[in-house]
Specification:
This protein has about 260 residues and is of the alpha/beta class. The chain is about 30% helix and about 25% strand. The protein has helices spanning about 15-25, 45-50, 95-110, 145, 150-165, 185-195, 210-220, 240-250, and strands spanning about 5-10, 30-35, 55-60, 70-75, 75, 90, 120, 135-140, 175-180, 195-200, 225-230, 255. β1 (about 5-10), α1 (about 15-25) and β2 form a beta-alpha-beta unit. The longest helix is centred in the middle third of the chain and has 17 residues, at about 150-165. It starts with a strand and ends in a 7-residue tail after the last strand.
Length: about 260
């Protein structure tokens, strides 16, 4: 069970600093503040990490298109190392807590005046690689967004309220996502509007999507996965889709299209 939470921040990350400062003002939490990059496993003390059930990393997100976002994602690398961690290895992820935190972030953003920001999940990417389940909550854009006090306050309130109201829901359906772009419009709707909780997301840009990737995403989901959820149009050509389905059926893994999910 997830009961003890550790919130990790970095002094070298302006978005992280601001989120942490807001959290210190609005509640009492267990913090772990480091000097360097959180993405690098070697910058973290594994013994401290082991004392907690869930690790929440507060971070900036660099956007090539300078998109203004508040985002959530699980860590890991499907192929080469992208900013930390190890090749072809994912960190443990909780679909239930990711859904809960995403819902809290959407609500806090909607209750704020941050109309220029969008709230989104991101596909699984970058490190660190740690033993405990973890999730990143990030402010995306440029230096201006990372230092935006309004954005950091919304992120902090989302964390506070998610921790305050956290309760595992055994009736959720647990899924791993496959397909789509880095920001996950199809999976966003499901995470917010359905009974399905999503952990790792394998994006189209890591294609060809392999059996190794799919099994790693399932095995690194802390809850038992009920099915794999496919962004039908977001996995590419029909032959690529057929290969994914062949892998799933070979391993007796149930799958559904995102259009199969009731979003009400």
């Amino acid at each position: 069970m997830i009961q003890k939470f550790l919130i990790v921040g970095s002094k070298s990350d302006p978005a992280s600093r601001n989120i942490i400062m807001n959290l210190m003002d609005i509640g009492k939490f267990d913090f772990y503040i480091i000097e360097g990059e959180m993405l690098k496993t070697e910058n973290l003390d594994p013994e401290k990490i082991k004392q907690f059930d869930m690790i929440i990393f507060t971070s900036k997100h660099k956007s090539e298109k300078h998109e203004k976002t508040l985002s959530i994602h699980a860590p890991g690398n499907f192929r080469e190392i992208w900013g930390g961690g190890k090749e072809k290895m994912l960190g443990p992820a909780s679909a239930l807590f990711e859904k809960h935190l995403f819902e809290a972030l959407v609500k806090e953003k909607e209750d704020s005046d941050l109309t220029r920001y969008s709230v989104t999940m991101e596909a699984t990417h970058h490190g660190p690689l740690i033993e405990r389940p973890s999730v990143f909550i990030e402010i995306g854009g440029t230096e201006d967004e990372w230092r935006d006090k309004g954005a950091s306050f919304v992120a902090a309130k989302a964390i506070r309220n998610a921790l305050k109201t956290w309760k595992e829901n055994p009736y959720r359906e647990i899924a791993v996502g496959i397909g789509g772009p880095h920001y996950c419009p199809g999976f966003n709707k499901i995470q917010l509007k359905s009974n399905v909780a999503i952990s790792h997301i394998i994006p189209k840009y890591v294609s060809p999507i392999t059996e190794e990737m799919i099994l790693e995403a399932i095995n690194k989901t802390v809850e038992e996965v009920d099915f794999v959820l496919i962004d039908w149009k977001g996995v590419g050509k029909a032959e690529e889709r057929d290969k994914i389905i062949e892998i799933l059926e070979k391993n007796y893994i149930h799958w559904k299209k995102i259009s199969d999910i009731n979003k009400s």
